[in-house]
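Need Amino acid ABC transporter substrate-binding protein, PAAT family's 3D structure for a figure. Predict it.
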Amino acid sequence: MTRYRMIAILMSALMAMVGAAGPAWAEPPARFEGRPTLSFVYETQANPPRYLGTGTAINWDRPGLTLELLRDLGARLEVNLAIRRFPWNRGLYLLETGEADGIFHASYKKERERIGVYPTLADGMPDPSRAIFTQAYFLHVLRGSPVRWDGETIAGLGDKAVGATTGYSIVGDLESRGVKVETGKIQGINLNKLVAGRIAAYAELENMAAAAIASDPAAYGDVVKLEPPLIAKPYYLLLSHAFVERDPALAEAVFETIAAINADPAFQARAAAYAAGAPSR
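Structure prediction for Amino acid ABC transporter substrate-binding protein, PAAT family:
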């Protein structure tokens, strides 16, 4: 039994205990009768401006830039999209089982090739030109912390661990450096550990950490970000093996269309509008 499957089973059991039914698959406005429907999943935490809001709801009036990209993708390919939010590891499980056709945003991890398909170059490595976007992990500490990061070495941890979000690729990156890592399911849990002194630092995606900190400035006002970034990575729409085997031509078209939309001046203008706080339609 895989780790993703074990986590998903436990989560399903918990949802049954509390009587929580999952939301219906959320659909953007466009519908193309007689055309395929692609089911994509993404996580329940905010990653502004790529996806906004928390929980399972999707506000299609202002969903986030990646959701805008996918809505454009559906229109260009004339395919229907069914999009739903889940905790990250649950989403990976749905991809593995073929219940979801794709998950975003997924950085490259060799082990994820077992459960999904990245856009690739001729040598079989992921093609960053067909990624959704690039984002960076940063180390976060409390103001006045002795922890230092010079771009090469993390110093001043003492005997404490660095916190990271469960299932995120930064866990393996830190462990490969010999850093002790303690994981937590969501950003708020990890920030609370940092504030309480249970971990020496917290490694998180820049925008996700910023959104969590901004959600409770009284609690997290002393959390600061260390420069430079720990690592910057391309992030992809990872497609399921089941979908790629079922319709390889459409899967390839999805990857190509992501690149085309990112290069479109109209989409770039929308990205600038999101950055300014008011998306332009």
